[in-house]
Amino acid sequence: MAALLRDPRIPLGASPPAAPRLLLLLLLLPPAQAAPGAHGRPLSKVVALNVNVGRTPCGRRYIQGKIVGGVDVLERKWPWQVSVHYRGFHVCGGSIISEYWILSAAHCFDRDKNIVAFDMYVGMVDLRFASNHTQWFEVNKVIVHPTYQLYHPVGGDIALVQLKSRIVFSDSVLPVCIAPPDVNLHNVTCWATGWGLISPQGYVTDHLQEAQMPLISLPLCQLLYGQLSYIMLDMLCAGDIRNVKTVCEGDSGGPLVCELNRTWLQVGIVSWGRGCTYPMYPAVYTRVSYFSKWIHYHIKNTPPPSQPLPALSPMLGATISIPVTMLAVLSTL
């Protein structure tokens, strides 16, 4: 499994410092909102970055409207969701940003892991079965940001995954837009999705979960975690503290998306936090807008695979129910 979604500075089994005054303050304050972008650019003028150049528009889904406190997701609701498998098991989430590229967390691809053993699944809602929308891909290349773990135990926690073959887009499989550097996240609705644990007791689900996650300002998040150095500028905090909704182990690498002007932007990547045991602490995400230029550069300048392999796709119009374990076996042949 990928690294646990927990504070990297606190040993396993240790209790984090209590913050009763801050928690009381949170309960008395109105719902938390993220501070406006550094440039204060109006929402009406924000232009999302579509790295899927010249092809399918990003951030548009056909259906409008496990994570602790989450609910089951309808098929096609989050068409950019990716399940990252390692040696046949789901370990992380990810998001489609281009026909050849997946965005995820760097810690999902630690140096001790063999890239050949990774598989990417798109168009999937239930981890147990592949539907007629599911596509399976092998990994061609993983690009980890050069600042990963350089200034912080999980700082720069972002990775680009290039596939060996092209994703076939449909109403169930679509790319999400990348938040631009000057995005304004004031008064936006954001959602997190994933297949992680759905309770502090360790209950798991095979069905994709969703939960609305209010954004939390950087200063407030730093106060909650007790030290300013814990939360850096390349990070973003979100969590529904009042209703005890947060992300858990297994959600790592998954997207945090917000709707702006009827377009869905990915603003965060599930990175770390105190985990399900302490849902009163917000989860910490990689701030996508901080890395948007890096993302665009590599997608534009990295050549596609020289000999793409065909994706495993069912016949058009057919309804299938193939166990994912069978696909995992096929990937090793």
Automatic annotation (TrEMBL):
Tryptase is the major neutral protease present in mast cells and is secreted upon the coupled activation-degranulation response of this cell type. Residues 1-34 form the signal peptide. Homotetramer. It comes from the Eukaryota. One of its GO terms (molecular function) is serine-type endopeptidase activity. Residues 67-300 form the Peptidase S1 domain. This is tryptase. Keywords: Disulfide bond, Hydrolase, Protease, Serine protease, Signal.
